[in-house]
Amino acid sequence: MIKIKSSEITLEHIYRSRRKFIASAGTITATSLLLGACGGSSAASVEPNEPLTVSSETDELGDDLTSYEAITTYNNFYEFSTDKEEVAPLSREFRTDPWTVEVGGLVRNPQTFDMDDLRQNFTEEERIYRLRCVEAWSMVIPWQGISLASLLKAVEPTSEAKYVRFETLYDPEQMPGQRNDWYQWPYIEGLRLDEAMHDLTILATGIYGQPLLPQNGAPVRLVVPWKYGFKSIKSIVKIDLVEEMPTSLWMAAAANEYGFYANVNPDVPHPRWSQADERRIGELSRRPTLPFNGYAEEVAALYADMDLTRFF
Ligand code: MTE
């Protein structure tokens, strides 16, 4: 394991250095570069209490991990703000303990898990995944989490269950964004059952060996790495097995722009912008977007008979 002490995280090179990690003698110095939509303003420093822990400095394609600083200060979490840099400061006091996740619907064994239940009953593992936002930026994030399939097996879906519906906490007192009616709160997302059972799909509980911070969806959020980031719903309180395709918050808001499947696809432009390339946070030039965000080998078979320009 590679450990990074928080005292070794220097922000000195933000906006100057391209390198995010300089490995030396078993430790890593994290620096980051925040440009583009983040550019110009200096994000508040995030100092984790424990050393950052990762098993590798890159993903399986050799791409550098995005810095902890960037992952925790450049966020989409509309319940707090539509301004990415406001999410971390506005969510600082968000209460994530006690927390329960109710898992039910078309299952034989409905259960309500608290966070200790999740940690004790399921194996936490590290997964280094690319996260590709529909807005055409991306990061490489070392998550810890549990396999969603193992949780779903524990509640024993019935044969009628075809989809999984996820719900974020609804608490407008804590989440100022939910006080506006631009969107139909709470945030809802959904997966087909086979997508939810896929080995790549996880419920994440941490990043870089640290528990999730509120801005990243504490205490537990979905991560589906081959789909646009909006599918990876944060701060989940309810998971239901259902028969009909759930209507997500984004489908309710603009179904022609944000489909149910939302598989990363460079060949299907968003109605208002291209999806052919992306800005990797921390890099200067854009890079081509990969089909299924680089996970085609693992997941393309799930969609073998589908026209992915129609089911976007
Ligand atoms: N989940 C909820 N509940 N609310 C949100 O606004 N934003 C989504 C997704 N999950 C969002 C959410 C979008 S658009 C993206 S790109 C990712 O969270 C961003 O995750 P990150 O901030 O941890 O990088």
Question: Could you characterize what this model shows?
Answer:
- The chain has 312 residues and is an alpha+beta fold.
- 13% of the residues lie in helices and 25% in strands.
- It contains seven helices and 16 strands.
- The strands form four sheets. Strands 7, 8, 11, 12, 13, 15 and 16 form a seven-stranded mixed beta sheet that branches. Strands 6-5-14-9-10 form a five-stranded mixed beta sheet. It has a two-stranded antiparallel sheet with strand order 1-4.
- Bound molecules: ligand MTE.
- Ligand MTE binds at residues 75-79, 131, 133, 168, 187, 216-217, 229-230, 232-235.
Determine the CATH topology. Sulfite Oxidase, Chain A, domain 2
Q: What's the CATH H-level superfamily name?
A: Oxidoreductase, molybdopterin-binding domain
Q: Give the percentage of residues in beta strands.
A: 25-35%
- Given helix and strand content, the structural type is alpha+beta
Shape descriptor reads globular
- CATH-derived architecture: Alpha-Beta Complex
Distance between the termini: 39 Å
Number of helices: 7
Strand count, sense and barrel status of the largest sheet are: 7 strands, mixed
H/E element order: EEEEHHEEHEEHEEHEEEEHEEH
Got a strand count?
Answer: 16
Question: Quaternary status of these chains?
Answer: single chain
**CATH top level assignment:** Alpha Beta
Outline the low-pLDDT stretches.
6-43
